[in-house]
From TrEMBL:
The keyword Nucleotide-binding applies. It catalyses: D-ribose 5-phosphate + ATP = 5-phospho-alpha-D-ribose 1-diphosphate + AMP + H(+). Homohexamer. This is Ribose-phosphate pyrophosphokinase. It comes from Caloramator proteoclasticus DSM 10124. ATP binds at D41, G42, E43, R100, Q101. One of its GO terms (cellular component) is cytoplasm. The lineage of its organism: Bacteria, Bacillati, Bacillota, Clostridia, Eubacteriales.
Length: 317
C-alpha cells in the first residue's frame, strides 16, 4: 500500500474492469466504489459512492468496442470527479480508440484523434497514461502531460524466454509504418529484421507486395501495434511461410480483432499470436494459439510513479 500525501484512488468504467482490478491489486488499493449504468433511454448514468475530495484519481478505461459508449463513460466519470473536487485526475487508457484518425488522409477528413484529446481535457483529465498509440505524435495533440508506455519490452521478453539462437530468428515488420517498432524489438532479441512492402487498395484491405530481407529457414516473428481485421498480419504470415520461413509467430499490443479477424488467424500460417490485454478478449476470440500477456504490472508501476512524482520513463531503462 502506498502512503504518500493525499489518497490514491483507482476507478473503472465497464470497458475492462478485470484489468483495473489487477492494477489496483498490484498497487495495493481496492477499486473505487462506483457504478456506471444506463438510464432507460440509453443515456449513461454514473454514481461515485465514495469521497474523492483532494484525492489522486486514476480512471482505467480502454476506449475499445463499443468505442463511443466506453469513451462517453470515461468523459462522464471524469466530469463527476472534477465536480467532486478530486485533486488530480489521470485518464488511464490502455487502448486509445480513434488513434488511426490522426491526420487528413484525404480532403474533408476529420482528425478524430485530436478531437478525442480535446474532449478528454475538457472533461477534466489532468494527465493521460496510455500504451502504444497508433501514431506517436498524438501525444502532441494534448496540452496536458501524456505518459506513453511501450508494449515491446513485455512482448520481446516472452520471446527471449524461447532461447532462440540469434541466427535462426528474424523479426518482421508487416509494413513500412512498423519498422521502428520492429527494430526496437529486434535489438532486444539481437536479431536481424525483414520488412514487408505492401500496398492498401482501400481501408481494411491489404495486399502483400514483396519481402525485404532473408526469412528462409528462420523463425519469423511479426510485430505490430494492433491487429484489427487481421488482413495485414495473416497475409504477411502466409507470405513468409511461402518464402520458406520455418515457423511464423505474430505479436501485437492491441488485439482489436474485429470482423473476420478470428477466422483469418485460425486459417493462417501463424503458429502463435501473442497479444497484450489492453483490450479484453471475449470467449469467441480466445483461440488455442492466442497467448495473452498482462500489462497490469507496467500500468501499476506507472501509476505508483505518477502518484509519487517519480520518472515514468525509468520503467523501461
Amino acid at each position: 500500500m502506498i502512503t504518500h500525501g493525499k489518497n490514491i484512488k483507482i476507478f473503472t468504467g465497464n470497458s475492462h474492469p478485470n484489468l483495473a482490478k489487477e492494477i489496483a491489486d498490484i498497487v495495493g488499493v481496492s477499486v473505487g466504489n462506483s457504478n456506471v449504468g444506463r438510464f432507460s433511454d440509453g443515456e449513461i448514468s454514473v454514481d461515485i459512492n465514495e469521497t474523492v475530495r483532494g484525492a489522486d484519481v486514476f480512471v482505467v478505461q480502454s476506449t475499445c468496442a463499443p468505442v463511443n459508449d466506453n469513451l462517453m463513460e470515461l468523459l462522464i466519470m471524469m466530469d463527476a470527479f472534477k465536480r467532486a473536487s478530486a485533486g488530480r485526475i489521470t485518464a488511464v487508457i490502455p487502448y486509445y480508440g480513434y488513434a488511426r484518425q490522426d491526420r487528413k488522409a484525404k480532403a474533408r477528413d476529420p482528425i478524430t484523434a485530436k478531437l478525442v484529446a480535446d474532449l478528454l481535457t475538457a472533461a477534466g483529465a489532468d494527465r493521460v497514461l496510455t500504451m502504444d498509440l497508433h501514431a506517436a505524435q498524438i501525444q502532441g495533440y494534448f496540452n496536458i502531460p501524456v505518459d506513453h508506455l511501450l508494449g515491446v519490452p513485455i512482448l520481446s521478453k516472452y520471446f527471449q524466454d524461447f532461447n532462440l539462437n540469434e541466427d535462426e530468428v528474424v523479426v518482421v515488420s508487416p509494413d513500412l509504418g512498423s519498422v521502428t517498432r520492429a527494430r526496437k524489438f529486434a535489438d532486444r532479441l539481437h536479431a536481424p529484421i525483414a520488412i514487408i512492402d505492401k500496398r492498401r487498395p482501400k481501408a481494411n484491405v491489404s495486399e502483400i507486395m514483396n519481402v525485404i530481407g532473408d526469412v528462409k529457414g528462420k523463425v519469423a516473428i511479426l510485430v505490430d501495434d494492433m491487429i484489427d481485421t487481421a488482413g495485414t498480419i495473416t497475409n504477411a504470415a502466409n507470405a513468409l511461410a511461402d518464402l520458406g520461413a520455418k515457423e511464423v509467430y505474430a505479436c501485437c499490443t492491441h488485439a482489436v480483432l474485429s470482423g473476420p479477424a478470428v477466422e483469418r488467424i485460425k486459417n493462417s500460417a501463424i503458429k502463435e499470436l501473442v497479444v497484450l490485454n489492453t483490450i479484453p478478449l471475449t470467449e469467441d476470440k480466445m483461440l488455442d494459439n492466442i497467448k495473452v500477456l498482462s500489462v497490469a504490472p507496467v500500468f501499476a508501476e506507472a501509476i505508483k510513479r505518477i502518484y509519487e512524482d517519480l520518472s515514468v520513463s525509468k520503467i523501461f531503462e
